[in-house]
Amino acid sequence: MIKTDVVIIGAGPTGLFCAHQLGIIGLKCEIVDNLDKIGGQCIELYPDKPIYDIPAVPKCTGEELTNNLIEQIKPFNFNFHLSDRVQELKNENNKWLVKTLNGKEFETPNIVIAGGVGSFEPRKFPTKSAEKYDGKSVLYSIKDKTIFKDKSVVIFGGGDSALDWAIELSNSSKVTLVHRRDEFRGAPASVQKIKELSDNKTIDLITKYSIKDVKGNGSLESVEIKSETGESKVIKADYVLGFFGLIMQLGPIAEWGLNLDKKTIPVNTENFETNKKGIFAIGDICTYPGKLKLILSGFHEGALAARGCFKYARPDEKYRFEFTTASSTIKDRLGVKE
Amino acid sequence: MAKIKYIEFNGTEHEADVANGLSVMEGAIQNDIPGIDADCGGGMSCATCHVYINDDEWFKKLPEKEMGEDDMLDQAFEPKSNSRLSCQLIVSDDLDGLTVHMPEKQV
């Protein structure tokens, strides 16, 4: 059990800056994120795309913004718990007991939900029959590529993950790549390589088809694909892989008794607290009259939520507002030598 | 201004007068029409405002897809050749009478 002042859910820019603000006012926090890296949507959706509306930063990419925020909170040495997800919350004696999917437990008076539009999860096949084999022979990510050796593998998708795995696995497996259209969104070099492998019959490339059904008797045997004009084909398959990108799901957050407005959480704009005492929501996931889904709004929301957390983390102390330019306490916390 | 008809997967029809300059997605959101999520708010980065244009004449009449829309549609639920992202369909008088069909689900 880890005891802390605040658990932040979400390591996107909003969660990171909130952590900074907590560090500045002398609170500790632990940060949990479902992704395997820090940065949230900035890293997952647009690492290379320039952002033009961060105050005083005329232009930076999602990756640069993330790296700068990580740098900014370095002095505080906060722990990150990546590839993990907060699953359960329970209130006991005004403390929140937090459990994650990987079995970590926290005790904290405050939780800050900076969850964007939920957690990223792979989009799965729409066919019901695929669920039966999910995680066994129908896969959406690859942990151990040796299982595919000398097997028939059918890969669906047109992005980098689909192309890269088709190329990689073609060395030791019988690979069929299926995509819904003729164009691919992967890197041009990979697209070129796929065309070469298809031309020399190393892989089977089938376009303008999508999945219809998976079939098997206990273990997976084949996958049926369909074209929009109604033709269908059956391909022998030991494994079926789907790479359709990530979708965002609210997930367990919806189960915690918070007021929800569509997929967002209404908050009090004084401190960004939700209807539950000690649970705050900031960034894209919160809503209030006039809400803008901008990173800069998330920064503001995080600063106020941090002060809101102070009240519950240090009930016997009075919060004193200080500037980073002037306060020697803050400079100590930042490890700045004058 | 254009009258846009939105048809849910279960067949429920909704009609909305949408002002020029708004997107077909915004027309749905502002009129509380279910079936379009628009998680990213119109930034062409989520594919949760996916619609089908079943009338071929209408499909051809719509402004062409910009770079990136088809890439995003690859990641939609059950994309077809008549799929569009409704955030990319900007309403003008020319779109008066357009009908869009919603997929079974967005995520």
Please outline the helices and strands.
The complex is a heterodimer of chains A (338) and B (107).
Chain A: E1 2-3, E2 6-9, H1 13-24, E3 29-32, H2 41-44, E4 50-51, E5 60-61, H3 62-73, E6 79-81, E7 86-92, E8 95-100, E9 105-108, E10 110-113, E11 119-122, E12 138-139, E13 152-156, H4 160-169, E14 174-179, H5 188-199, E15 203-207, E16 209-217, E17 219-227, E18 232-236, E19 239-242, E20 246-249, E21 265-266, E22 279-281, E23 286-287, H6 295-313, H7 328-334
Parallel strand pairs in A: 1-9, 2-3, 2-10, 3-6, 10-22, 12-19, 13-14, 13-19, 14-15, 21-23
Antiparallel strand pairs in A: 4-5, 7-8, 8-9, 11-20, 16-17, 17-18
Helix pairs in contact in A: 1-3, 1-6, 4-5
Chain B: E1 2-7, E2 13-18, H1 24-30, E3 50-52, H2 56-61, H3 69-73, E4 83-85, E5 99-101
Parallel strand pairs in B: 1-5
Antiparallel strand pairs in B: 1-2, 3-4
Which features does this protein show?
heterodimer; A: 338 residues; alpha/beta; FAD/NAD(P)-binding domain; 2 domains; five-stranded parallel beta sheet; B: 107 residues; alpha+beta; Ubiquitin-like (UB roll)
Summarize the structure.
The complex is a heterodimer of chains A (338) and B (107). With 338 residues, chain A is of the alpha/beta class.
Structure description:
The complex is a heterodimer of chains A (338) and B (107). With 338 residues, chain A is an alpha/beta fold. Chain A is built from seven helices and 23 strands. Chain A has a five-stranded parallel sheet with strand order 6-3-2-10-22, with helices on one face. With 107 residues, chain B is α+β, with helices and mostly antiparallel strands. In chain B, 17% of the residues lie in helices and 20% in strands. Chain B has three helices and five strands; from the N terminus they run ββαβααββ. In chain B, a hairpin with a 5-residue loop joins β1 and β2 (13-18).
The Cα radius of gyration of chain B reads 12 Å
**Ends apart, CA distance between termini of chain B:** 30 Å
Q: Average pLDDT of chain A, to the nearest integer?
A: 95
CATH class of chain B: Alpha Beta
CATH homology superfamily of the largest domain in chain A: FAD/NAD(P)-binding domain
CATH architecture of chain B: Roll
Question: Terminal Cα separation of chain A, in Å?
Answer: 38 Å
User: How many β-strands of chain A, per DSSP?
Assistant: 23
Helix content of chain B: 10-25%
Biggest sheet layout of chain A: 5 strands, parallel
Uncertain spans of chain A, ≥5 residues at pLDDT below 50?
none
